Amino acid sequence: MVDLSKEERYAKIVSVDAGLEPSEVIAMMRGFLRHQQILKDAVKLGLRPEHFKEVEFYYLYSALIGLSEKFGYVSADMLLTELHAWSQSGVLNTYPNLMAFLCGTEPNTGFIFESFQIADASPEELRSEKAFVEDLVRRCINDRVIRVGLQNELSVVGGAGAPKNFGSRLDSWTTRAQAVDFIGRSVTSNADMPEFGAKIVLPPKPEVTGLPWIDNYIGGIRPGDVVGCMGPYAGGKTTLLATAAVRVAQNYYAQKSEKVSVFICYEDGGDKMNHLFWSAAAHIDRKLFEENEHFWSLFSTSAETKDYDRILPENKNGKIILGERERWDAARSWLNKHFVSLDFSANSAHGSGYGSGGVPEIVNVLSKFQEDSGLEIGFVAVDYAGLMLNRYLSLDSKTKNAEQIWRQMQMLPDELKTQVAIPFKATVFLAHQLAGADIKNRPVYRYVDHLDSQGSKSFAENLHSCLCINKRDPETGVSTINWSKIRARVPVTPFGLIKLDSHVVDVHLVNDQYIASETSRRIIRKGETGLVTPDPEVAANIHAKERRTMVRPTADFAAENGLD
Questions:
Q1: 276 is in which domain, residue-wise?
Q2: In the listed set 433, 461, 492, which residue is the last one of a domain according to the structure?
Q3: C-alpha closest to that of 417 among 429, 405, 407
């Protein structure tokens, strides 16, 4: 005779159901006894004894819900006592094997006793089992309650015509189906004040980046945050993201951290992007990579330096002069371990082929990299939002109208927060274009904000912080910046001026060198005298909106209105 396992013997008793396998029904009923909040949720959603074709579980479930509704909790002794009372009254005489299965033939045996034996289970095991049971209950209710109920509604329609309230009745089933997803989940307040001296969870402290155009305004970067970086076409967004990603990687090296900084580029692959990262890391003139394929032989050394070598920050103290070769070797020691560039240009011929899968694709790739490398994801730069979403939506022929695109754009930061930033405990920097029509007529000395974003005016609603860059001033090469949204820290002023380095990939905060002058209507060096009165021809062409916002001298206003 074949010796069947305990689960197989139980399964022999249970009849087969189309929704759940016999072994799954057994696991679900055992879960009701171990996790009684799930039982209460199932009752609220309409799971009744008559939904069980399995005779043993019909009576077990009947006793369970009766005791639970009366006393709020069911113990093994309560349940065994109730079933023995039913048996003595003759209710269960038709089913001679039922009591042996549920209550056992010997003390401390049977399905009920064994189901309550959870003392040796670890918290992790109980959590995993609870999640498994919740999934079984969802499937059971969807199959035996929701599906059957809908079929009954539709059969009534087919037989006697649609009732007047048919729509509202279907809506009620939709609401019940949605509630099934929340089985077993309890709602508690997160703001209860702990006892004095108790350990509390504080927001993560900002990590200083060493980049003044970030640190001076938002104090650094925080795990779980999504930060927007917005600017016009060719305005320097990629340079800012590349500088931030590389500098964060260098910080990880200095801190001996097992983290990596990741740059995800949707626009170009490594052939067009790598020299930016190398220039940012080693402070090597970017033109060296762009103009000559034999650039190795053109590297300077500490013995033979170039003019720009001597003015770099690492050489300004006058004692150590590093050439391009030395800086290259030094950067390789940390860039190759702590920095990762992912080609999401969707180029299957020369790239990785990634780039059309949206946020789920990012999550999949980052998870696989983290698993393979054993390193944590600390920083993620995404360049850029518009191309990422348009490519993702183009795969679905149904998502073509403007409303679907702007709604996706509005929700993108929240998706990156909930699926990337928080699960990976990383900071996400997300580049996005400013609307061309809005930025075209904006003077270079003015500050822009996130309301000028392309595709969705609500893009920054779900961002923790948002940096907005205006066009570069053609004379000085300086751009205005505006941290138009800062959730965690309020600086003295959110405005500033930056300048992209003319030699290497770097960004300098130049508030101490330049000012954005409304009087001169341009960006000027500090101490430079500008025009007090604009040229008449220029003034005549000032945009109407700007004329309305110009400040008029008080004396002129008083004289014109007879108040002097």
A1: 233-433
A2: 433
A3: 429
